[in-house]
Specification:
By secondary structure, this protein is an alpha/beta fold. Helix content is 46%, strand content 13%.
């Protein structure tokens, strides 16, 4: 369910109240007004499930509306009335549930046209075509385990958005066609195959292009361009490849665009701002996501959903000092679309709450990933070892002190309790127990001879510690031990240090 903070909930409340007031002025029947009010209250209750008042009002009004609708109208009218949200072929959770003002405008347009065009089906199609104010197509950059899982989940929606996978080398394109141009997801032994994805091959820009300015952007064209503008982008590549990946599509992004980052590690947005979008006026809207699903790849575009989890999301304001931040429509569309998926179990949070969730996941990764890579063991190998337990406590002592000293968390309630050493240790051991049979991503990268994300996990802790005057000597040592093992592995496999062209 969607849980939003006061900074996002208040505008939603105002918008819903305005919609109810405008609805009362339409020429719909009282029963239809009650139905619309019921669905508005019910949708509103999803925004604040922690408040019993919304749930109580939603249940009373919704049940009263459905009872009145069932007693005052027959099934035939439910089918032919396009304004009834709970009628057949309409889903209140889908994009088909357009606002009342838009439906009223659609009805007027239909009535002014040919009688045959004024049929419910024609009105429905008009509503779909006229009420979309921005392209619904979602681009996914990085069709690995997480990107493929998100694409498959979105394609499973009742009213799925168009999805395009951005492929970056010839091997991925060949794998896509060899796998039948589909994405397969196995859950509890059941294989679900989804088709209908679009694919695009993104090329590497010129080596001399460090970043793009506003003057470098191609002009907007009214006709269909060769490379359409990207308004909705999900980035799920490895953290160290984010810069190279975004350079390939930066010329197709606008300030009206939104980028959702679903990756391990932290400090990625700061690097993107510095190297890809240094001009704040040119910068798209950012969203951050923290995923806890367990997904691994069997072969290209074939994945296994090993463990159910959630996706925590937040829209990052462009100016943190704004009292009432404004968000571009594409950001709200991305947030709303992902929260529709029951498989993703996406939840909306405020930026401060999401930051704490990011830090909690970072703590777990900063312990399990480097230690399993150094000891070359599964996650469960860290359990019931007194020597490893001492190492974990030494690392957590530095991490806890750094997080409590971060300026962005000063004044946030319960930070000292939430990031206490004992609680963090219990969190780490709990995750290690649940995923005892799994191999960490860092261990898999080292075994494959690929770079690791240590600079964005342990390296982030070390950098933030230096900013607040804390020397994290233990974490600094662990980071370089993993990096040394990575380089030794590359040398043992006779790999030359070349520029990374493959993006995971």
């Amino acid at each position: 369910m969607l849980m939003l903070g006061p900074d996002i909930l208040v505008p939603v409340l105002k918008e819903e109240l305005v919609g109810v007031r405008e609805l009362a002025q339409t020429n719909l029947s009282p029963t239809q007004n009650t139905s619309h009010d019921a669905w508005k209250f019910f949708n509103l209750s999803l925004c604040a499930p922690s408040r019993p008042l919304y749930w109580a009002v939603a249940r009373v009004v919704l049940h009263r509306s459905l009872w009145l609708g069932s007693t005052s109208r027959g099934d035939s009218e439910l089918e032919r009335n396009p304004y009834t949200n709970h009628g057949r072929r309409r889903y209140w959770w889908s994009a088909q549930n357009t606002s009342d003002v838009e439906l009223e405008a659609t009805r007027n347009r239909a009535n002014d046209s040919d009688p045959q065009e004024a049929s419910p089906l024609a009105q429905y199609r008009l509503a779909q075509r006229w009420t979309i104010k921005a392209p619904r197509r979602i681009y996914i950059l990085g069709p690995g385990s997480i990107g493929g899982f998100v694409a498959h989940s979105l394609a499973s929606l009742p009213d799925p958005p168009p999805i395009t996978l951005l492929l970056y080398n010839q091997k991925q394109l060949s794998d896509w066609y060899n796998q039948g141009q589909s994405i397969k997801l196995t859950t509890h032994g059941l294989v679900d195959t989804k088709l209908g994805f679009g694919v695009e091959s993104v090329r590497r820009p010129a080596a001399t292009t460090e970043h793009l300015s506003t003057d470098d952007l191609p002009p907007l064209r009214s006709g269909p361009p060769e490379e359409p503008i990207i308004l909705n982008l999900i980035v799920s590549v490895k953290a160290y490849n984010t810069f190279d990946a975004l350079k390939r599509v930066a010329h197709r992004l606008r300030p009206e665009s939104s980028i959702l980052f679903i990756q391990n590690g932290m400090g990625i947005i700061e690097e993107v701002n510095q190297r890809v979008f240094p001009d704040p006026a040119r910068r798209p809207q950012y969203l951050l996501g923290v995923i806890s699903h367990g997904v691994h790849s069997v072969k290209p575009f074939e994945f296994v959903h090993a463990g159910a989890g959630t996706v925590a999301m937040a829209i990052i304001p462009r100016n943190i000092e704004e009292i009432k931040p404004t968000f571009v429509p594409s950001a709200l569309y991305l947030l709303r679309t992902l929260t529709r998926s029951p498989v993703l179990s996406a939840v909306g949070f405020s930026p401060t709450d999401l930051l704490q969730l990011q830090l909690e996941k970072l703590v777990v990764n900063a312990i399990i990933n480097p230690l399993t890579a150094l000891y070359d063991c599964r996650n469960g190998g860290l359990l019931h070892q007194s020597s490893i337990s001492r190492v974990i406590r030494l690392l957590l002592a530095e991490i806890s002190l750094v997080i409590k000293s971060l300026p962005e968390l000063q004044g946030v309630p319960n930070v000292n309790v939430r990031f206490d050493i004992r609680r963090l240790e219990g969190e780490v051991l709990g995750i290690a127990t649940k995923t005892a049979a799994n191999r960490s991503s860092t261990l898999q990268d080292i075994r494959r001879g690929k770079p690791t994300e240590m600079e964005y996990i342990t390296g982030y802790i070390v950098r933030r510690g230096e900013e607040v005057g804390i020397q994290c000597v233990m974490n600094y040592m662990i980071k370089h031990m993993v990096l040394a093992k990575q380089r030794m592995r590359e040398e043992s496999r006779n790999l030359l240090p070349v520029e990374r062209n493959d993006i995971d």
